[in-house]
């Protein structure tokens, strides 16, 4: 009798459990699926919960700490100002609210991939922007194609980004290394001009000189000497002496980093020997160590007094007001240009952030930036843009040599070869 009662009790308990589970299942089926929602409670297509405004989310990768922190800071400030400018202060486009998530790559490719994956998986961003380092950017490019999201590359310059590693979801507002080289050649090369080159002995130097040499020779110049130096060296005398012996009209320098050759170029009195020095004008902190090169002619990607347009006027004014009188630096306009490009693309698509649809709308798209008009070239999505032929001069009240405009180099003059 006890055994039968125990079995009856067990059976009744099981029936109650099954009934409770069925009730839970019925209740859950009536609730919306939120398992894929991002940090702002938005669904995969960027739509908010019922009754709330739809959102466009943008993830920005930048070196916000470490060696390239200043580059990341400039990009961030420019991007935020660019969104404000392009949306007339509303932070909305096509009736949708714009939200931005910034992530620090620490200038480490593996961290860049982790942060980009987080932006795509957890934050559900519609666009990716970045990064300060070409290494970080190259590591992230495949994710843009995998997730079918538009990635605006800014300010990374490696040719391979829009070359051998290109995929159709990549658009670049930053200039590339070949554009630098073409601009450098356009600034000084011509029929009968003799040029020597000086660069660090690794891929950055080799690629930069190869592109410059091709562009300079196409303009009729002759490359009479090529010198590649150990970037960690403290004495470049032997390299520079060989340049002096070649008796060029110009020495074109490709260099990056604090261990620069400028003081030794001055000590050897190369300019007094009739050899004009030419290079790209860097950001403001690096200009402060270029005192020995006052008088040199070269090119600039950007200096705040060089462009003459309403967008740059707005940028300079607003930047000074918001950042304690500081002027925008080398990569600030690039961040602004990336933001403007996204807003203009969304205007064309009426707010549709679908990557596949945007590709066709953005190919050939022109838009106004602090540097003037940029155009995404259809073949490789590289933004064609003006550059500047400049001369470094001392100016009263400015504690570094100032790039002074010789002439603007048009987007057509500085367009790089298509390498993809």
From TrEMBL:
The keyword 4Fe-4S does not apply. Keywords: Signal. It comes from the Bacteria. Residues 56-393 form the Leucine-binding protein domain. The keyword Signal applies. Residues 1-23 form the signal peptide. Pfam families: Peripla_BP_6. Residues 25-51 are annotated as: Disordered. Residues 28-50 have a biased composition (Basic and acidic residues). InterPro entries: BCAA_transport (IPR051010), Leu-bd (IPR028081), Peripla_BP_I (IPR028082). Belongs to the leucine-binding protein family. This is Substrate-binding domain-containing protein. It comes from Sporosarcina oncorhynchi. The lineage of its organism: Bacteria, Bacillati, Bacillota, Bacilli, Bacillales.
């Amino acid at each position: 009798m006890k055994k039968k009662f125990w079995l009856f009790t067990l059976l009744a308990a099981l029936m109650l459990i099954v009934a409770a589970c069925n009730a839970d299942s019925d209740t859950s089926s009536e609730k919306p699926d939120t398992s894929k929602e991002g940090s702002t409670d938005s669904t995969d297509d960027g739509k908010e919960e019922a009754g709330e405004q739809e959102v466009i989310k943008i993830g920005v990768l930048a070196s916000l700490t470490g060696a390239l922190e200043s580059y990341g800071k400039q990009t961030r400030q420019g991007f935020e100002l660019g969104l404000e400018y392009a949306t007339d202060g509303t932070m909305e486009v096509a009736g949708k609210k714009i939200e931005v998530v910034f992530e620090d790559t620490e200038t480490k490719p593996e961290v860049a991939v982790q942060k980009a994956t987080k932006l795509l998986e957890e934050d559900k961003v519609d666009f990716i922007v970045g990064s300060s380092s070409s290494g970080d950017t190259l590591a992230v490019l495949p994710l843009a194609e995998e997730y079918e999201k538009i990635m605006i590359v800014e300010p990374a310059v490696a040719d391979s980004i829009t070359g051998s590693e290109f995929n159709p979801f990549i658009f670049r507002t930053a200039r590339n290394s070949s554009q630098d080289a073409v601009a450098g050649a356009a600034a000084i090369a011509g029929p009968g001009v003799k040029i020597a080159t000086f660069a660090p002995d690794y891929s950055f130097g080799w690629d930069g000189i190869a592109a410059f040499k091709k562009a300079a020779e196409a303009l009729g110049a002759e490359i009479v000497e090529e010198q590649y130096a150990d970037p960690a060296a403290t004495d470049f005398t032997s390299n520079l002496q060989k340049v002096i012996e070649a008796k060029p009209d110009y020495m074109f320098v490709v260099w990056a980093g604090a261990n620069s050759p400028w003081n030794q170029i001055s000590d050897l009195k190369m300019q007094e020997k009739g050899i004009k020095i030419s290079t790209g004008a860097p950001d403001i902190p690096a200009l402060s160590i270029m005192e020995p090169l006052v008088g040199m002619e070269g090119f600039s990607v950007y200096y705040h007094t060089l462009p003459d347009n309403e967008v740059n006027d707005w940028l300079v004014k607003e930047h000074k007001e918001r950042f304690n009188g500081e002027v925008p630096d080398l990569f600030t306009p690039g961040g602004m240009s990336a933001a403007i490009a996204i807003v203009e693309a969304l205007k064309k698509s009426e707010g549709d952030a679908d990557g596949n649809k945007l590709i066709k709308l953005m190919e050939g798209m022109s838009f106004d930036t602090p540097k003037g008009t940029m155009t995404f070239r259809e073949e490789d999505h590289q933004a064609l843009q003006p550059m500047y032929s400049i001369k470094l001069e001392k100016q009263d009240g400015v504690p570094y040599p100032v790039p002074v405009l010789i002439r603007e180099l048009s987007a057509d003059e500085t367009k790089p070869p298509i390498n993809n």
